[in-house]
Amino acid sequence: MRLGVVILPEHRWSVARDLWQRAEQMGFEHAWTYDHLTWRSFRDSPWFAGVPMLTAAAIATSRLRIGLLVASPNFRHPVPFAKEMMTLDDISAGRLIVGIGAGGEGWDATMLGQQPWNARERADRFVEFVEITDRLLREPAASYEGRYYSAVEARTHPGCVQSPRPPMAIAATRPRGMRLAARHGDIWVTTGQRRADARLDAKTGAAVVREQIDCLAQACAAERRDFSTLRRLVLSGPLLDPGLRSPAEFQETTQQYAAAGVTDFVVHWPRPGKPYAANPDVFESIFRDSSPRS
């Protein structure tokens, strides 16, 4: 199982640089940051932009794969986004993963002054955003005419380092989104489902994810996609307990998810308080001296 870590964009780069470099030293396969203007709970706290943070991380590391988990259409347009991703793929020497989600209903949805999109519009925009981004990253000149997004002879010269484009990680828990992941994705992303007030333990969470993976397999069959070629990534923390209280618990947690069909498991870098509070010494003991997973 490949292991990854999310580093919140809350630190000045003089501090964040050490975290990204330490993540590489600890053997994580991939490292991510969030793509939000901010969280409402962080509105008066530091919160830096995701793409510049990844750019700096790409320069400060040499092996670690990097990405946004996940980019939000709430405040992005596919044409400049694709240009940024092409540039990041170049700066990272082909280590970028392009993460995309439908965007949430939180502060990002209204901070630019627009009315929040309803569920149907959000889903429709998500489809268009993924389709046009995929095309722009594959083709040096591309046009697209959608209901919400358009591109007219958009250029992405000289193109991506990775061919035909960087891998795309698509977050989806509903059938339509899973079909989209099966059609365009290299990695499917889930945080579980909002079924409980508390985070689910490993056994219960893995059962939930197993059900989702069964639906994903059906989506792949409908799209005539080889299911085995689509990686399955679980982002723990928001809804699923990451098992970071001891090395033994973490091993049990990852075994449960691996048995459910998960290929990639992501935790959060420990913070002193909520959200994602964890003991940094235990965190180090779990991942210290680990080699890259494949």
Briefly summarize what is shown.
The chain has helices spanning 13-25, 50-60, 78-91, 119-138, 175-184, 202-222, 247-259, 280-287, and strands spanning 2-6, 30-33, 65-68, 96-100, 141-145, 150-155, 168-171, 187-190, 231-235, 264-268. By secondary structure, the chain is an alpha/beta fold.
Notes on the structure:
With 294 residues, the protein is an alpha/beta fold. The chain contains eight helices and ten strands. It has an eight-stranded parallel beta barrel, surrounded by five helices. Strands 5-6 form a two-stranded antiparallel sheet. β8, α6 and β9 form a beta-alpha-beta unit. α1 crosses α2 (50-60), α4 packs parallel to α5 and α6 (202-222) runs parallel beside α7. The protein is globular. The relative contact order is 0.14. Mean pLDDT is 95; it is low at 289-294.
